[in-house]
Amino acid sequence: MKLLLDTHALLWWLADDARLAEPARAEIADAANTVCVSAASAWELAIKARLGKLSMPDDLGQQLLANSFVPMPVEVRHALAVRLLPDHHRDPFDRLLVAQAKTEGLTIVTADQSIPRYDVPVLAAELG
C-alpha cells in the first residue's frame, strides 16, 4: 500500500500519540508499505508553528528519514489537479494533499471527515 500522511497523522505518529488509530499505526509501521509525506505538510507545519498554533519537531527532515518516510514534492501537476476538485474542503493544504493522492494513487491517512467525500482512498487515522 502507498500511503500519504495528513499533517495531523504525521504529528501523531512522530509523537506516538494515542489518537492515532491502531489500524493506521500498523499500516504506517509495515515495511511493505510506502509512506509519503508531502512538502505541503512541512509547509503547513512551518506556517502554523511560526504563528504559534502548534509545535513541530526542529529536526523534521531527520525524523522523516529515520522513519523511512518518502518526501513528496509538490509538482505543478499536483497544483493544477486542485482545480478539478469539488469544494468539499476549503483548507488549501488538505486540498493539495487530496490532489497529490489522486494524482499519485495514494491512500490518505487522515482523521479529517471531509476528505472521504473526495474520490480518494482513505485510511482512518482516528477511530470515531
For the termini, the CA-CA separation is 23 Å
Query: Which regions are unreliable across 5 or more consecutive residues at pLDDT < 50?
Result: none
Q: Which bin fits the share of residues in helices?
A: 40-55%
Main pleated sheet: 5 strands, parallel
How much of the sequence is in beta strands?
5-15%
List the domain count as a whole number: 1
Mean pLDDT across residues: 95
How is the quaternary structure best described?
single chain
Instruction: Name the shape in a single word.
Output: globular
Looking at CATH, which topology would you report? Rossmann fold
- What is the CATH superfamily classification? 5'-nuclease
Task: From the alpha carbons, calculate the radius of gyration and give it in angstroms.
Answer: 14 Å
Report the CATH architecture: 3-Layer(aba) Sandwich
Q: How many separate helices?
A: 6
Q: What's the count of strands?
A: 5
Structural class by helix and strand composition: alpha/beta
Q: What is the succession of H and E elements?
A: EHHEHHEHHEE
Spatial order of the strands forming the largest sheet: 3-2-1-4-5
Q: Can you give a write-up of this model?
A:
The chain is of the alpha/beta class and 128 residues long. The protein has a single domain (2-124), classed as 3-Layer(aba) Sandwich (Rossmann fold), CATH 3.40.50.1010. It is built from six helices and five strands, in the order βααβααβααββ. It has a five-stranded parallel beta sheet with strand order 3-2-1-4-5, sandwiched between helices. The relative contact order is 0.24.
